Structures are given as C-alpha cells and as structure tokens.
C-alpha cells in the first residue's frame, strides 16, 4: 500500500504561481512513476505530468513550460510547480503512483485525496 497526501492548493490570482506537494508513505519503493492529474467541475479527469523513477518527465502538451514536476527523494515527496496560472487551471489536483513499467504509465495504482486549486481572473 502507498498513501499519498496532496497539499499546497488554494486561491491564486491569474498569472500567479503555486507549488503542490504530494507526500508518499508506505511501500514507496514500489512505485515506478508518479503523476499529477486534475479534474475541473463538470469535466473528466485529465493528465497533467508524470515523473519516472529514473528522472524522466512527461507533460500534457498544453501545459508544457508552465508546469514542472519534480521530487525530493529524502522527503518522499513529489511536487508540481505551476506558474502563469489561468482561470482554466481551476480544478482539483490529484497525485498518483504507478507500478507500471511502461512509459508514460497507462495505469496508476494509488491516488491521493486531491487538493483544490482556484485561479481567479
């Protein structure tokens, strides 16, 4: 089992920045990749970014250059740095871990509870 807890969400004005954190505990050595997803009201959950154990990263094209995924191994924490935020970035952001060997992962096994990000215009 892996437990994931997101934090860092909040209300920010358009153009601002936020850094989300995802603290992992439990069998953290079992994950091959970590990912961030988001779900806006009335929309399906969408992929944001992924980070492989090797350090490789993968982003959804529309967010490249504004969002950066990174990790702190000592803290078992993965981050999502978001800049140039827009009202359309408003969503609940989730982190997830994957044991899949493929890249980018097609399946994620554990999910956090999510953190709300609201961008005002």
Estimated helix fraction: under 10%
The total of helices stands at 0
State the end-to-end distance. 40 Å
Rg, Cα atoms, Å: 13 Å
Number of strands: 11
Low-confidence stretches are none
**Overall morphology:** globular
Mean pLDDT: 94
Class per helix and strand makeup: mainly beta
Strand content: over 45%
Largest sheet features: 7 strands, mixed
SSE string, helices as H and strands as E? EEEEEEEEEEE
Detailed description of the structure:
It is a single chain. The protein has about 120 residues and is mainly beta. It contains no helices and 11 strands. The strands form 2 sheets. Strands 2, 4, 5, 6, 9, 10 and 11 form a 7-stranded mixed β-sheet that branches. The protein has a 4-stranded antiparallel β-sheet with strand order 1-3-8-7, with no helix packed on it. It is globular and about 40 Å long. The mean pLDDT is about 95.
